[in-house]
Amino acid sequence: MAKWILYHTDGCHLCEQAEQLIMPLLGNSNTLLPIDIMTDEQLIAEYQISIPVLKSEKGELLFWPFTSHTVREFLAQTE
């Protein structure tokens, strides 16, 4: 099971940047589950103006914009 979720949508350049920033910090791509918000009306309503959003398995959220430093801190706090 994924430890973190990245809410995104196809064609979102910020989402692509976020994933490129996050992946090297995780080290194992199996720990990140990208979820396209366009697949669910609830997700669209919740995140449409906020993506990309990184979510921990505990439900904590990190909203864009973020840097590798803030992602590292978020990952450390939510492990």
3D structure, described in words:
With 79 residues, the protein is of the alpha+beta class. The chain contains three helices and four strands; from the N terminus they run E-H-E-H-E-E-H. A four-stranded mixed beta sheet has the order 2-1-3-4, with helices on one face. Strand 3 (53-56) and strand 4 (61-63) form a beta hairpin. It starts with a strand and ends with a helix. The model has no long low-confidence stretch (mean pLDDT 92).
Write down the Rg: 12 Å
Residue stretches low in confidence (pLDDT < 50, at least 5 long) are none
Number of helices: 3
How much of the sequence lies in strands comes to 15-25%
Order of helices and strands: EHEHEEH
Lateral strand order in the biggest sheet: 2-1-3-4
Structural class: alpha+beta
- Largest sheet geometry: 4 strands, mixed
Calculate the mean pLDDT score and round it: 92
Helix content: 40-55%
Terminal CA distance: 14 Å
Give the overall silhouette: globular
Count the strands? 4
Keyphrases for this structure?
single chain; 4-stranded mixed β-sheet; 3 helices; 41% helix; 22% strand
TL;DR?
The protein is of the alpha+beta class and 79 residues long.
Protein topology:
Blueprint: E1 4-8, H1 13-26, E2 32-36, H2 41-47, E3 53-56, E4 61-63, H3 68-78
Parallel strand pairs: 1-2
Antiparallel strand pairs: 1-3, 3-4
